[in-house]
Amino acid sequence: MMKLKTNSYVVIIVLFLLGAVMPLVLRRYNLFMLTEIIIFALYAVSYNLLLGYAGLLSFGHAMFFGLGAFVAAVSIIHIPGLTLVSAVIISLVITTIAGFLIGGLLLRHKGAYFALLTMAFNALFYAVATKWHSVTGGDDGLSISRPELDLGLASLSVSSVSSFYYLILIVVGASIVFCWYFTHTAMGKTVLLMRENEERMKFLGYNTNISRLILFTFTGAVAGLAGAFYTLHFQFVSISAISIDMTTAVLLMVFVGGTRTFWGPILGAFVYIIFQNYLSDITDRWPLFMGLIFVFMVLYVPGGLSQTIVSMRQWFSGRTGTHGNGPAQTEET
Amino acid sequence: MNEIAVFFLHGLAYAGLLFLVSAGLTLVFGMMNVLNFAHAAMYMLGAYFSYSIMLRMSGQIWVSLIVCPILLFIIGALIERFLLRKVHANGHVAELLLTFGLAYIITELVKWYWGNYPLAVNVSGFLNGTVQMMGITYPIYRIFIFLSAIFVGLVMAFILYKTRLGIILRAAVNDSETVNTLGVNVPLVFMGVFAFGAALSGFAGVIAGPLLSTFPGMAHDILLDAFVVIVVGGFGSLGGAVVASLLIGELQSFGVLLFPKLSIALMYMLMAAVLIIKPSGLFGEEQ
User: Fold this and answer.
1) pLDDT of B265-277, one tens digit each?
2) Residue A49 DSSP label
3) How many C-beta atoms lie closer than 10 Å to residue A203's C-beta?
4) With an 8 Å Cβ cutoff, are A116 and B276 in contact?
5) What CATH number is given for B2-277 in this structure?
């Protein structure tokens, strides 16, 4: 891991520092939105590990996001005195188990079959969340109050917008960095090679099925983590968190941002959340524009915004710059 | 006893509708290997076209049954020719995402034009009546649904297995390059298959209107059921679609009667069970 370019770390540190001064610059409403963006950036990054790195098109990523969100909410409501950290850990454990079981069942299929099956499982989760009214609140959703952050020595209140923003910046930001680090580990490389030439990997003695299962479980757990923080952020979770629309949202973020770079989905989350906030203010036809963007991107910009930026930068060779929010890093994948 | 018979017939009617929707889906999937997410949206479009036509035709469904599939055939052909074909080279993911985006656009346009509320479709003539049999009174329209599903299934089976066109279609699935060199215009065949799938979805939409009424959520509702049908029946298998439609239709119907709280989950449990025991579906070939 010594080979990682040091300027990657410089970019990460600069972005964290930039994030750290944001509460001084932004208004409360925008800071709230930035927190949301960072959480969705983690969700998008986890999805891109599946789609961009492993080439697995899942239409059910929201089942892990929603599961994490609901497990966090339910455990905070039903376990008195639960700390924030424990609630997040419970979510993480349960989504990891769910990812492992569902991955074991579905990864026997590939391509469109896999896409369809993940969608059907997402629908199953949604159906359960809708019907299991006593636990999930059904259509009403669940309201929670954010627990304090217990650090052992001291207990911090994270009830204000800016203190929660700092928590998200550090914890979720670090999780994104961890995902980036993961892509540079032997495991991360295995996944990439598997996408390129699975036959050869098998001949070389790799068990590609197990690698794929580990990756699926990992991305499920990361999505669950993002879901848990989503609940903590809004202090509310509704069944929309586990619906297919939430899968569509992440798909669009990743696709708009571009699947070929690690930082593309982060950029996508940034664009998507801002765009959605503005569009839903001015028009009710937001899904129509979403569909049009989808079709336009598929037809004319299949590489996403990050691909466009990379090509533009190659065009103006010599000029460098960072785009997007959170710890992002340009790299060739 | 009578109650069971009524629920059984309800199940058959829904199975008929499910077959009409999933037959087109599984046809396009089997032939072109494209999972068409816009299929249910086109079905909804068919239902709304039919609503507008029947409003002017004082509830006569026959005009709709002919006009709507033709309209959807044209729309399907245009989508294949000008959108789907262009992204084909970019692979599977691009095709899926394209149909996904189209589903959103169609759904929103429908909401825009017809409004975001249910519209009742009233069928007139003898279809509106009831029939006495085995001591129960049953609406003729539901029986009509089941019969039209049988009719469509037989026509499809006849085309696929008894005509020259069917031979070309099945050959193009296996090896489209060879079929192309033999002088068959394969892109045209694929366009035809996609358009025919769209026409089938339009037909199903017309049939569904009077049963379920037309509303913007109808696409979403049927899409998942149809997906479960083709997973359970086996991808691309027409016979599988028949059996799975009957299974899911009856399961939905009796599920509401026996386990009202679990009724939605039952279908997915069946799907999970099939996946564990026979991952390729009941009638699917091993991948």
Assistant:
1) 788 888 888 877 8
2) I
3) 9
4) no
5) 1.10.3470
